[in-house]
Amino acid sequence: MGFEQLAELRDRLRAEKVQVKTDSPEQRKRKSAPQAKPREQDPGVEAIWRLQKHFPLAFPVNPAPKVPLKEGILKDAEQHLELLGISSEQLKQGIAIWCRGSRYWASMTENAPRLDLNGQAVGVVTAAQALYAKQQAKRQRAQARRSQPKPKAPASAAETAAEQVVD
C-alpha cells in the first residue's frame, strides 16, 4: 500500500468517525460508574459540617481562621440538636475535634473575643487560657514530628571513602 492510499484511508476513517458521532450521539451513551457505597463519614466530622452550615460565624470554613468559642458552647449547641439533625454524642465529638486543631489553638490569644453560636462576643480569652493553648499547640507539633518516619541519613563522606578503599 502506498503513501497516498494510506492517507486516503486515514481521511475516509476520520470522516466516518465524525459522521457516526453527529448521526447518533444517543448510541454512544457512557456507562455509568458502578454505584459506590456511600462513604461512612466520621460522626464528629459530620457534626462539624452541620455546625458550619447553621452557625458560620462561630464555625468558619477553612481558610478563614477559627475563632475562640464561648465557654459552655456545648450546652448552647445542644439546644439546637433537632435543627442540626445529629445526636448529642455526635455534637460532643464534633466540638471536641474542632477545639483540638492547631488552627483553634492559634486563635486562642490573650484578650481575643470568645463567640457564641451567633458570632456575638460574650467573653475574652484569659492569659492562662492563651498560655495553655500555646502549650497544647507546641505539644501537638512535637507529637506530629515524632510520628513522622525519619528519613535515612546519607552516609558521611568519610564513611563513603572508607568503603571505597576497602573494596
What does this structure look like?
It is built from eight helices and two strands; from the N terminus they run ααααααββαα. With 167 residues, it is mainly alpha-helical. A two-stranded antiparallel ribbon has the order 1-2. β1 and β2 (121-124) form a beta hairpin. The longest helix has 21 residues, at 3-23. The termini are far apart.
CATH homology superfamily name of one domain: ProQ/FinO domain
Strand order of the largest sheet: 1-2
The average pLDDT is 81
Structural class: mainly alpha
Series of H and E elements? HHHHHHEEHH
- Total strands: the figure is 2
The appropriate CATH architecture of one domain is Orthogonal Bundle
Q: What structural keywords apply?
A:
Fertility Inhibition Protein O, Chain: A, Domain 1; 2 strands; mainly alpha; single chain; 167 residues; two-stranded antiparallel ribbon
Strands, helices and their partners?
Blueprint lengths: L2 H21 L19 H12 L18 H6 L2 H4 L3 H13 L1 H6 L5 E3 L5 E4 L2 H21 L9 H10 L1
Helix pairs in contact: 2-5
What would you say about this model in short?
By secondary structure, this protein is mainly alpha-helical. 56% of the residues lie in helices and 4% in strands.
